[in-house]
Amino acid sequence: MRIDLDELAARHPAARGDAPPALRPLSVSVAAGEQVAVIGPSGAGKTTLLQALACALPPSAGTLRLDGTDPWTLSRAALHRLRGRLFLAPQVPPLPPRQRVVTAVLAGRLPAMGFAASVRSLFYPSDIPAAHEALERFDLADKLFERVDRLSGGERQRVGLARALLSPASLWLVDEPLSALDPTRSRQAIATLVEQARARGATLVATLHQVEVAIAAFPRVIGLRDGALAFDLPSREVDRARLERLYAQHEHELRGDAPLPPPEPPAGSPPAVMHCR
Fold it and tell me: 3-class SS at 101?
């Protein structure tokens, strides 16, 4: 699914009516099938951007187009159908605590199912092998029949990501999916998500605090600060200086989640000696 933002601005749902928009006029395009990471300090507008892309938050100015269509000009029924092509994974997945993991994962297919089939799936999981395969990609196959309330926070986040693999959506919107994961699990989860999105031709937009993971896993990185676009670059061009400017006065967020890339050596300087251990 292609995304086009033209001077899009949006307010956080909890903001007062006279509050400035959390997302300032922003113009960005994302090609169908592209994978993009969005980084920036807390309060940069990352979550507001995802909510706007998910058609959960109408713009306060400008326009959003998904595959050339402005969602907010559609009828209620057409907007509902369009939302069925979107998959939004919030930072804390809304998983019923007494639900079995297999049912939670298969819920990713609900937008493509009729009402009767949806209700039936709550009691009789329709495709257990598919749920097992999705969980296996996130190293959770042994949790297939566990109850959600017996999972750790990191396991719940990975269950939320596994749902994407069964979703019929062509646009995956993932909000801070690694906050409860250790570095190894973080790299594994994001690599799986990017790989599977690419294999399915799905557009993936993910907000991340882990700058190192974003740069390593995504071919394109967008930096937001104070609701405005700071940069939109291939990941290989996101250098130390840009990150320092992006996280100025928020250096603790950068230091806590990912080391800065090494500074570029001065022109003409001898190559640095590196030791592997």
Answer: helix
The pLDDT averaged over each successive group of 10 residues in the chain (277 residues) is 97 73 94 98 93 94 97 95 93 88 89 57 74 96 95 93 94 92 91 96 96 95 96 96 93 64 43 37
Contact 156, 177 (CB under 8 A): no
- The token pair that represents 190 in the structure block: 């994001």
What pLDDT is stored for residue 137 in this prediction? 96
Query: Are β-strands 23-30 and 3-10 bridged in parallel, bridged antiparallel, or unpaired?
Result: antiparallel
Distance CA 49, CA 154 (A): 24
SS3 220: strand
* Residue 168 per-residue DSSP state: -
Contacts of 153 (CB under 8 A, 6+ apart): 180
Q: What is the pTM of this model?
A: 0.86
Question: How many Cβ atoms sit within 10 Å of the Cβ of residue 224?
Answer: 25
Burial 98-125 (b: 16+ CB within 10 A, else e): eebbbbbbbbbbbbebeeeeeeebeeeb
Write the CB contacts of 207 (distance below 8 Å, at least 6 apart in sequence): 37, 38, 39, 46, 47, 49, 50, 174, 175, 176
* C-alpha span between 207 and 174 (Å, rounded): 6
Alpha carbon distance 9, 24 (integer Å): 5
